[in-house]
Design goal:
single chain; about 300 residues; mainly beta; Thaumatin; eight-stranded antiparallel sheet; six-stranded mixed sheet; 19 strands; globular; SUN-domain-containing protein; signal; SUN
Amino acid sequence: MLSGISLQNVALFLAVGSLSVAADPADFKRGNTCSFPTNDGLVSITPNEQNGGWAMNTNQQCTSGNYCPYACPSGQLMAQWDTSATSYTYPESQYGGLHCNDDGTVSKPFSNKGYCYDGKGTVKVNNNAGSDVAFCQTVLPGNEAMLIPTNIGSGSTETIAVPGTEYWAQTAAHYYINPPGVSTSDACAWGTSSNTYGNWAPYVAGANMDGSQNTFVKIGWNPVYLSAYSNTKPNFGIRITCDDESKCNGLQCEIDPSNGVNSVNASSSQTGSGSAKYCVVTAEQGSTAKIEVFRV
């Protein structure tokens, strides 16, 4: 059932580890700056920094001649990007969001679309860890830093964004899963290796739907975490569950760090960049999957 997955982009995410390579601000043209749309239902990212709310580096402004990505509410996806950027290649992969015009105004590349739209709704997060958990989605197209926040409250369930084939270059959504108790403001920002959150979160996840409406959900160890904390067991684990297991292929798919760092309990585990282990579950058309977060 794993053939035909748009798992090439999930695999690419794993193959390079964490594709959170922030663009050098010098790569962007200087000129007029464009303000973040504050009254359009978007999620503002560090509004008091130079990025001013855009889903960009904190020290990076939205300047004329460039595309400026933004964050959408949980479960939704950005609907705007450079219409000529159609493949997952650099620098085209940076050209997400609204276009900043020479006069300091912004325009939609797709004038007939809104800013955000609902994802497929086929993956939820169930938080049984006893504290809030931050899922941080990477900005793609954009700088691929983990800036888009979803807070899953203790004991609650939230829908995360799952793109279909209509999304940019048919790419998947990628998430960093942070330790319970770390806020989205701390976790969904570029940090340092001194903390096991953000780019150094223990686990990553990916999700997308193919043309046959099968949803593919991946959970795995973050290779960046493994390189910095190979001897440190996280205090929480994750697993994929399905309400109707008969419609899910790839179960069991679980990471329980009690079994050791980089261990995966799975019917079929795989290895990505940095020898990081992961597993994938396919939820068939009409079914949903959950990523459960639990304490160990």
